Amino acid sequence: MSKPNHPRMLAETESEAVLRNIRVSPRKLNLVAASIRNLPAGSALSSLTFSKRRIAQQVKKVLESAIANAENNHQLDVDRLVVTTADVGRGVVMRRFQARGRGKAARVEKWFSHLRIVVAERDILTKAERRAAGRKRPGTAAATGAAAQPAETIGAQA
């Protein structure tokens, strides 16, 4: 988890949205943020819509805000947006006390978090296109046909 409030200049094809002091621990928020990193914006929205976690609805609002910023402030194409970063950082910690036996007390820590989502305009490839692009790389086993050789020998033995 990195600090979301570090100053970073955005490229012309990027847009961001920030939400501070969310009443959830950074570890729990990072689980939801990790599930949408490097996804196209549309599939990230649908993933958050049907997530069972309570915090997913607030993350969805931040993502929608980042998409709206990209469309209205930077004139980016909404259909080509990808979630490039979803940074989670520590906020304040409220400390409370809970009464325990024999007149003692235990400390209860209530964590807050910060969230920063950056979306960028990129070419979105389908799985088949990514697979085809992966085969065309020179020097890989798929390009040289080395991966197909053991399969032929297995078929010949049977």
Q: What strand order characterises the main sheet?
A: 1-3-2
Please, how many domains?
1
Largest sheet features: 3 strands, antiparallel
CATH superfamily: Ribosomal protein L22/L17
Q: Please, what is the average pLDDT?
A: 87
Number of distinct beta strands: 3
What's the total helix number? 6
Pick out the low-confidence regions. Answer: none
- CATH-defined fold name: Ribosomal Protein L22, Chain A
Which structural class should the secondary elements be placed in?
A: alpha+beta
Give the strand content: 25-35%
> How many angstroms does the end-to-end distance come to?
51 Å
CATH architecture: Alpha-Beta Complex
- Dominant shape: elongated
CATH class: Alpha Beta
Order of helices and strands: EHHHEEHHH
Short précis:
This protein has 158 residues and is α+β, with helices and mostly antiparallel strands. It is built from six helices and three strands. A three-stranded antiparallel beta sheet has the order 1-3-2.
Key features of this structure:
elongated; 3-stranded antiparallel sheet; alpha+beta; 38% helix; 158 residues; 28% strand; 3 strands; Ribosomal Protein L22, Chain A
Task: List the SSEs and their pairings.
Elements: E1 14-22, H1 26-36, H2 41-49, H3 56-72, E2 81-99, E3 105-121, H4 127-135, H5 141-144, H6 148-157
Antiparallel strand pairs: 1-3, 2-3
